[in-house]
Design goal:
Blueprint (H helix, E strand, L loop, with lengths): L1 H10 L12 E6 L30 E8 L8 E11 L6 E8 L2 H8 L17 E2 L1 E12 L2 E11 L6 H46 L1
Parallel strand pairs: 3-5
Antiparallel strand pairs: 1-2, 2-3, 3-4, 4-6, 6-7
Helix pairs in contact: 1-3
Length: 208
């Protein structure tokens, strides 16, 4: 369902490193600084690193993301804003648009705690600050199905061999594949919980 895609791809976008492991090594909302602990970072207010104090109802996210390391190539990291917009009167089509931001401007004007990694500290020594612009389009096809189209433009900065660029481009295709698997897993868990709740309600009725 489109709402599951919205939850996984947008509301929980800062957890992308948990399922998009081919391209993303770490990802955070800017109010949860990254660290060098292998992607665990600072714990959220629930103690599990889920970032539950992040405003999930907002239609705009500010995200820090670090790419998965590649042989002989420095990792890239990104600071970007991601926005969700309904583009159809019937609410059946959404656009998710993202673009890189200057981290110093974010820190000064948004009043957020920008990760040390964003300002070039040793926290991500060897990383190269890159630039991206992307857009995802989600169209509702039915109550349990939707279609997503994903476009991404990246300026990786620095000299990168053509064969590496091609390999990374090929990996990006799997982002949608891994997103689908994650959404299917989330939806299956929700259905299971719903069925269990329904079963408990029926038991209570029989006891009465």
């Amino acid at each position: 369902p489109a709402e599951v895609v919205h939850d996984v791809w947008f509301r929980k976008h800062f957890q992308r490193h948990r399922w998009d492991t081919r391209t993303v090594a770490d990802s955070r909302p800017l109010d949860h600084p990254p660290s060098m602990d292998g992607g665990q970072g600072d714990k959220g207010s629930d103690g599990n690193g889920n970032g539950n104090d992040h405003d999930e109802d907002s239609n705009t996210l500010l995200v820090w993301l670090r790419s998965t390391p590649k042989p002989l190539i420095s990792t890239r990291d990104f600071i970007y804003a991601y926005r969700c917009v309904d583009v159809s009167a019937d609410g059946k089509t959404r656009l998710y648009a993202g673009a890189s931001l200057d981290p110093h401007i974010v820190a000064e004007h948004a009043g957020l705690a920008v990760p040390e990694a964003a300002t070039g500290s040793a926290n991500t020594a060897g990383s190269v600050r890159a630039w991206l612009q992307g857009c995802g389009r989600v169209e509702v096809l039915g109550p349990r199905s939707c279609r997503m189209t994903y476009c991404l433009r990246v300026q990786p900065k620095g000299d990168i061999p053509k064969f590496v660029v091609q390999a990374v481009a090929n990996e990006t295709v799997y982002t949608l594949y891994d997103l689908r698997k994650q959404c299917e897993a989330v939806y299956a868990r929700r259905l299971n919980r719903r069925n269990m709740d329904e079963g408990r309600r029926r038991k209570k009725k029989r006891k009465k």
